[in-house]
Structures are given as C-alpha cells and as structure tokens.
Fold this protein.
Amino acid sequence: MELSDFSSLVNFTAIDFETANGKLNSICQVGLVRVENGVITRELEILVQPPGNEYHWGNTRVHGINRRMTAHAPTFDEIWNQMFPYISGQHVVAHNAAFDCSCLDHTLGFYDIAVPTYKPHCTVKIYKRNLALLCETYGIELVHHNALSDARACAALFLRHLKGEGHDSVMQPHIH
C-alpha cells in the first residue's frame, strides 16, 4: 500500500505511560510523540505524581521512577490540557494499546475528566513482537521503559507499517 492511501493516518499521536503500581490510574510518566505528515512535530515527556504518590517496588524496578522523583511533580489532571489536543479526535498509537488506553481512560475517570473520542492503534497487534526486539531488528533507538523513548519507538514502528515497510522479516526465522 502506498503512504498516500493512509493520508488520514499520517497524522497520529504515539503514547506510552509508565505506572507507579498495579492500578491503571497510577500513571507516573507520560511520553507523547505527535506525528504530522509523517514527521515528528511535538514531544512531551512528563513525570506525573500518581494518586497518593504510591509506588510498588516492582514497578520502580522496571522503569526506575520512584516517589522522590514525583513528590513535587504535577498530577495528571494538571497536565491533561497539554495532552488533550493530541488525543481528542486523533489516531492514537501505542505498543500494547489495550494497556495504555486503559491507563488513560482510568486516570481520566479518577480525576472525573471526560474521556475524549480517539481511534486506538496497536503496534503489538501489528507486529506481534515485543518493543525491544522490534527496535533491535529495525535499528530503532530505545531506552526501554522510558515513556518518551517507548513512544518514539512506537511512532517509528507505526510509520514503517504505514509505508508498507515489511514486518514479515520479524516473523521469519533468520537462516544463516
């Protein structure tokens, strides 16, 4: 398929959230990458204080963010206005969109903020592989579990998909 076939999708927002604990409303870091006409035009990387600034050690072990780092950070409702124009009415891409979109919806619900309409797309469903493997395969820079780096990688993967740059090679075993 030609890139022009996807003209409405050439503008999209890639997102990634890191969470502080097992609750879906515990976003502690936001990564957002806006792509317009196939080019990154805006990036947001924001540390967020989750409700009660409560962390589970297992989550901190994964992403390295802890309660000291977010003690004076804004809460999600304080940063939502920065994200809203890039989410509302947009194509929103995530690697495991079911998780990231659930985090967004639950967090907005926690703060009693209306969930905007958006069209989710999932690079896990497209590529059926984990982010680190895909980035290694395609030479995409990744600092895994940093929300902005994960969102950038997701944007790069989605652009590859839109351009029809095959992801079949990831599915095939490499024969030497």
Remarks:
- The chain has one domain: 3-163.
- The first helix runs from residue 57 to 63.
